[in-house]
Amino acid sequence: QKIPKLSNRESLPLSYAQQRMWFWEQLQPGSSIYHIAQALQLQGDLNIPALQKSLNEIAARHEALRTNFIVQDGNPVQVIQEPRAVELLVFNLQDIPNSDRPNQIEQLLQQQTHRPFDFASDLMVRGCLLQLDKQEHILVLVMHHIASDGWSMNIVWQELADLYQAFVSGQPNPLVELPIQYADYAVWQRQWLEAQVQQTQLNYWQQQLAAAPPVLELPTDRPRPPVQTYQGAGQSFTLSPELSQALQKLSRQEGATLFMTLLAAFQTLLYRYSRQEDILVGCAIASRNHQEIEGLIGFFVNTLVMRTDMSGNPSFLQLLQRVRQVASSAYAHQDLPFEKLVEQLQIERSLSYHPLFQVMFILQNTPTQDLELPGLSVVAQEIDNDKAAFDLTLEMLETPTGIKGKIQYNTDLFDAATISRMIEHLQTLLAGIVAQPEQNIAKLPLLSVSEQHQLL
């Protein structure tokens, strides 16, 4: 079924995902928890007018980036604005001594990342340039999740590279026109779900999540506060190429995807930590099942709840088949927006924890190309994220040198040392799984070598 282009583009409803973001903004005005920020280090001759023109062109091309949200008759509506220039602030740090620079860079990155977006008037994308030297810059792009997601960020960088390349060499915009825009999708999604999909999928999820435990009780360093603050920190790690390849191989042998194998391992870790046999984990899914939305910037990603029964102390291989079954069924019912699910299940809301799940697992496998900008060498720059939407989020990424991972955690609940240990336990567990996949999940190794020595 094709998504039609709307002729009337006035006062349109929000998509379900946008609506959730809009409600969140009413509850926590100006919160930066749903800001998506990415930065690149650029070495070489940067043509700033061509960069500005490229950003303006992206915002002109994608309506989602120039859509504002206002209230009409008590309901939020989308208002699509005319194209205008994207903010690109330039901070000159050339005169700052080298010793003070890292501090200054970090401060500016945090300040620009956290600055609020005004839903009623701002573009949902902005940029800034830190000029460290004539030949050295850091480019930061910040977008609000209401207009973007992980897949969208890849589109932004790819289009930026294509446009910049053209504009630097005096060529016209090389990008082909988009078939539809995000607002077309938002209106279509509501009609399609209400007409055909919602009830069947809702029936499945109601059955799948019946009598689910409201909270995963992990051992925390401090009691859960009555109101979440979303203060967070992150720790990164990399699995060795050997372990990464062994996990890929095990997945293939068992007819599972790498996502399923890593999820089963993570749920084993959570089972061992919490001693609960009913484990619910949230997982992001790209939700780009229509060709015409593949190239759009916007908030498409949906959240699926993976509920795994860990009872009976199965072997890891048996557990993997359970997870495979759960994930396959979830994918088959992936169109029901998470916000609709929570509303329909009439889940009791708590300010203290996230509904249905408090732990998230993400395997990034959206295609990322290495960016090539003429006359520049480009390297990704990490931005420290001091927010956490969940108790724990484990994010993993396949790279040519091995699987990279990061745990973003709520600092009200966990200390840094606890998370470091958890990462060690996860790595020990993964190594144990590939060595003995037929071992029962309660017996798989968790403790690092040093912890084993301490026990002796």
Please characterize this protein's 3D structure.
With 456 residues, the chain is α+β, with helices and mostly antiparallel strands. It folds into two domains: 12-182, Chloramphenicol Acetyltransferase (2-Layer Sandwich), CATH 3.30.559.10; 211-368 and 383-455, Chloramphenicol Acetyltransferase (2-Layer Sandwich). The chain is 37% helix and 22% strand. It contains eleven helices and 14 strands. The strands form three sheets. A six-stranded mixed beta sheet has the order 8-14-13-11-9-10, covered by helices on one side. Strand 5 (88-92), helix 3 and strand 6 (125-133) form a beta-alpha-beta unit. The radius of gyration is 23 Å and the shape is globular. The N and C termini lie far apart (64 Å). The model has no long low-confidence stretch (mean pLDDT 94).
Give the fraction of residues assigned to helices: 25-40%
First-last Cα distance = 64 Å
Secondary structure class reads alpha+beta
What number of domains? Answer: 2
Our Rg estimate from Cα atoms comes to 23 Å
Summarize the structure.
The chain is an alpha+beta fold and 456 residues long.
